[in-house]
Design goal:
Length: about 120
Amino acid sequence: QVQLVESGGGLVQAGGSLRLSCITSRRAFSLYGMGWFRQAPGKEREFVAAISRSGGNAYYADSVKGRFTISRDNAKNTVDLQLNSLEPEDTAVYYCAASWKGTSYYDKDYDYWGQGTQVTVSS
């Protein structure tokens, strides 16, 4: 089983920043498109950002565009999500995921998931 482990979550004030990281044990990391999703209590899991296998293309949900940045380092088997200008509405558990199909907006296209890291933004 491919292991994905997220880190970097925490409690911040509105307007603050966090950097989430995800590391995978899979050697063929570069063959997977990577994505970040989030899920708030009582709500469905939603797409946040995705990045292509080579890192050349990135995609964002409208709600985070301009504030969040996804990046990857295939040599280190990591994918990061920089969260800036955080808002209370960003409070959720953030999940890292890997997709054999490549980049996708749909969670069903992702094959492997991390356990999540909590991001809490206070007002």
